[in-house]
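Re: Re: token formats

Sure, here are both.
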Amino acid sequence: MMTLPDTYSQEEKLELDRQFNELLNCWKSRKNEQDVALVTEAYLLAANAHKDARRRSGEPYMYHPLAVATIIAGEMGMGRTSIICALLHDVVEDTDYTLEYISEHFGEKVAKIVDGVTKLTNEDFEEGVRSLQAETFRKVIMSMSYDIRVILVKLADRLHNMRTLSAMPHHKQLKIASETTQIYAPIAYRLGLYKVKLELDDLCLKYINPQVFESVQRQLDELREKKINELEEFLAPVKAELETMGIKVRTMAIERNVSSVWERMVKFGMSIEEVYDVYVARIIIDCQELENEKLRCWETFAVFTKYYYPDNKKMRDWVSFPKTNGYSSIHAVFMNKNGNWVETQIRTERMDEIAENGFAAYWKYRDQNSTAESGLDLWMKVVRDLVQQADDNHVSAIEFIDNFKLDLFNDEIFVFTPKGDKITLPKGSTVLDFAYNIHTDLGNHCVGANINKKLSPIHTELKMGDQVEIITSEHQEPQEKWFDYLATSSAKSRLKNGIKDFRKVFKEKGKAMLREYFDRAHVDFSRQNRNELAQKFNLATRNDLYYFVAMRKIGQQDVENCLKKNDASWSDYLVKYLTLGFVRPSSQKKSEEKLGDTELSGYVISTCCNPIPGDDVVAINLPGEPVQIHHPDCPEAQKLMSRYGENIVKARWQFGDDFAFLATLKILAVNKMGFGAMLFDTITNQEKLDMQAMEMKNEGGMVVAIVSVYVNNLKTLENLIDKIKKIELVKKVERVGKRS
């Protein structure tokens, strides 16, 4: 058997052995001597393979695989195969060891999982690709579709990388954090790995918007003692009464993580003191009988109503309708004795273990004798269907990611068929999504639906608990405009195939008409000319061309304009017929200002977040386009960085008064005569700023003002905000178009 090589110092060997023993100690799932021997062999192989590699901190690289394996064993509760894969996950990617060697020594299953988590490089493609990140992620998901452990190892790998991200340069931090918040944190959520998801979210916020992270963390520190005492007082009488009823419970005061608190502050435009569910009361019931779990949860809810008034609008019943990832709990909001709303979670010990440990607890509590598919089984079935559709339709890696996020990252709703069968769909799904989910033909011929016995059009968005009866007509055919009515990629794929099949019916008619047009134009009816015509109309196939001809959307004049080489009219033709493309945003004023470490003569200030000098910024340099300047926490910037991480350019503002940038403020004030004049005077006379627009709207006794002004830098804007806050009628001022 191998031993630790001498490239490690004596102290490092001792530390490696200490970490390996820690791994064995936290490995709680089934194991025997043979399991431990195989894991030990994998540890020594990895230590030898990485013997010359060091991390940026100077530590041996081998610390990383050991940490990933420890997360897999201790925090995810997985067993031998997953631990071995975690130890070996970088061996093929970074060393001379091959997948064949891994397969020979540890089995084909381990080799497949290691291959699934191995990053792609440009050498894996005959031609260059737009986004290696997207291609690698597609590979991970395709591998995950046959073995869920691929994504678990990838999540553990990402979690440890995020924990040690401080050693990386800033642009690398932004790339990795954006990729994590866009892709890996949502996957952890969908697998029920809430602890992993919450930690990833916090680490992402820490590196994308460190000022916000530190500010919210500081405010939580100040609130903690008071809020926990308040929750303990709130839970005490309920716990005491339940125990007199013979129901054993334990209670917890839960503090939401920093990123969750920040999301709520942004979503509702509130301060941390105004967000009612920053702290959550959780009550966990000791219920050994699975069949009595629901009863015990509702009994507990009834006891709460004896002491406190509930807000029924905010109640969520995940006990009757568990989430796809197995999460079950009653979420209720009650008014406490101090007049404050309290978010309350009611669950059993089994429900709590699944909520905390996700996938591992799913395996523990899975009924091996049941023929019913679990939520996780159904989710994996959707993943496999998505992979199959991607293969069948030859979609790009970027489109695959968009489809994956569209179908599998959104919150879910439950709706019912006329017979009472439950159907799970992503939030935002429509009648047409529902129809295609049931059957392709049902979608292709859908004309509407009865939703809760009420007639509704095909684009109606469904709500939780709706009962849906699809109405069809044999005269209805799939249409291109329906793509705008769909929220799921699976439905879009079925619509695409439906349109393709429908258009095939017109092939012979359209082909005959097109041949006639070519003859009149004295143009050869060759495959090359027909392909050229289809390409110029941005049509995917010749069948699409024949359909457009049969529908008289392409006629004699179009054929002559396209194929008789009339170059003079070609530009007019393009303007008339081609409607797809990109509209590039432009900054308020063109600038050759030096933005950071690189002279950027062609850049645009993105209007989605409108950064101004003084804000943290990230520059993204996409080929053939001007450099885009965003806030690091801008959703569009994170989307781009998660795909084109190698295109991030170092950037920072250099202050100057030569250029003005647009900033927008939202002001809430008492609706009293003269407020508009006071606001106008503060901006234009006192601060001497140019105002682009001001819109005011009355809302009862309050007025909401949206003001857009030109400022030179962040300090100017902060001074203006301070001045506006001093106006007596003003209650709140916030900057909009930016998440901070």
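Second one below.
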Amino acid sequence: MMKRFFVLLVMILASQMAYNQSVNEYDLVIYGGTSAGVSAAIQASRSGLSVVLIEPTGRIGGLTTGGLGQTDIGNKQAIGGIAREFYQNVKKHYQQPENWKWQKREDYLDGGQTRTESGEDAMWTFEPSAALYIFHQMLDAEKNITLVLNQRLDRQKGVKKKKGVISSISMESGEIYQGKAFIDATYEGDLMAAAGVSYTVGREANKKYGETLNGVHTADTARTMTRLISRNSINHNFVRGVDPYREKGNPASGLLPYINPKGPGKEGSANKGVQAYCFRMCLTDHPENRIPFEKPADYEETDYELLLRNYEAGEKGFPWINSAMPNRKTDTNNRLGFSTDFIGQNYDYPEASYTERQAIAERHRNYQKGLMWTLAYHPRMPGHIRKEVSRWGMCKDEFTAGKGWQDQLYVREARRMISDYVMTQYNCEGLTVAPDPVGLAAYGMDSHHVQRYVTSEGFVKNEGNVEARVRGPYPISYRSIIPKEKQCKNLLVPVCVSSTHIAFGSIRMEPVFMVLGQSAAIAASIAIDKDIPVQKVNYHELQKALLENNQRLQ
């Protein structure tokens, strides 16, 4: 009797749960409120589609609003469409006197590739809060967009697919979103993976696609088919003579933290490691807006021993790139052998559960907090570095919930789709040209270090850094943002594009993600209107629509 009652109770509860589930129907469902997702949503609305933009966290914009204010471009003329609208809106924002609180507009000096030249219609550097405000303004200007925050995909059983067509996705909350087409705009490729689309993680061997800059490399140069290109493994590395052991000169004492005991691997071979992540810190030196660096409660000096030894061995450089943003703020990035990159500590992130990813991000944040305190206050640091770093701190008016520390980890690379067209090094070098472009990339092939190891001489060294030029802006294939038709017919993937590790190092820039997000939405609109798979979209029709929406394809 009790057993029958229990079964009945379970059935009633299950029925109630199903009844409480909310089913939401849209033409286009976009999962991931990154810059690509925002751009796709705006374009979908302008194309007359009903669209929902689902962001797993409470903040849209991804890295563009998460601290990466120093826009990596390569060539500004490669940026068109909604991406360019965003940077034009940045300029309009900073033309308003009320948006200069901590600095006079005439006192701000940007620099490098992102310098805004006289007469330009756009501005390329910005505060995280300004980018967030602008993205919300752009979304609010559209009529057909529903924005949903703090909803995470059920990655185990949340994708309903039949005969290669996704009908709906469900969130951990039970919310269900039905659509005619779907876009995965996440940095991790979670929807793509849950939909059964093939992908890879890590570095391919050079021989897989006939490349020269992929895989493990400890040498400083590699010859391509056209010229000698610096691999720059010497860049962002330790000076010679840094001892890797807990007790100097004593291998029996064990390695210091975060060194790979197995060594780097065979030259040019595949490696499942992932290029290092960090947080792109927004710092300020304004006394009224500065939060001094604090020593974490779980601080371990051993974690930073290699940093200290690097300077004691003769390092003279400064361990960060501190790029000026408006209002006496910065975009602070990795530099030298030991810096903000938490090398080798992100390998599990792409496939990890949400809980595991949060733990990985927290370890990165605590590592960086300890790093900044060490640079600013540790007595073994050179005095000139302590003096300069201690002038800076987190911003009181940015990422206020985290006391200046953001939640968005710089996921430089995670999963990469494998579709019918794989972008490679030779696309980047202009030796292979995609005939069906949906956007241009123009930044150099750029990979951060993947691992830290002990050399044959018994010293510590980093491995994985690549900084190689591209000949100029080059086209990104439409087929690289759509899966193989047999795997999924109504999904587009503008972030985790089909590319090798080294090609992704050039493609993986925020303006390019915005461009690809917009192009994905245009392709989705055509596929929906004609009721065809995204793989059957006629490229000439797509090209015409892309150009009509101000995309730049050549």
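The mean pLDDT is 94. The first strand starts at residue 23 and ends at 31.
- S.
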